[in-house]
Design a protein that fits this description.
The protein is an alpha/beta fold and 181 residues long. The protein is built from five helices and seven strands, in the order ββαβαβααβαββ. It is globular and about 50 Å long.
Length: 181
Amino acid sequence: MLNNVVGLKPFGIFLPAHDESYIYFTESNATADFMVDCLEDLWPMLKTRFKPHTIAINADNGPENNSRRSQFMKRLVNFAIRHEVSICLIYYPPYHSKYNPVERLWGILENHWKGQLLDSVDKVVGLARTMTYNGIHPVAKLITKIYEKGVKIGEKAMERLEEMIERIRGIEKWAVDIPCY
């Protein structure tokens, strides 16, 4: 899809109850740090508008946002502590992405810019802003920070993180709670 177009990688956050979408792009690597930075960017609005005590994140269990990915879990635990909010991670099993609502967003975006020459960052981000999902335009942003691949924490640090999270028994790989401490 987009990975070969002007070097941009997308990440989306979708609020299905409101049909609202937030599309972030990076020219760097789409890492765990990039994903959590996008959540950090969106958090002030979410906190003000919804005052949540828990965030439910439905994710695709990709290599950068997997619940065994040490840097991703470290960043989410730190997010939960800093913002005093619990996080429920719910992962779709392999080959079930069609049930993930954010996947529909990507399909609409591809149809929206079909036939366009995506030859600049401004063009890609601008077209993302002009698409609509159920009549609502997404917020589209470029994150300019440079993200290094392969950032991870040590085994001991991950063991401490594992003590701070709750893997749901029987579906440990697919459901993780990060309680607010």
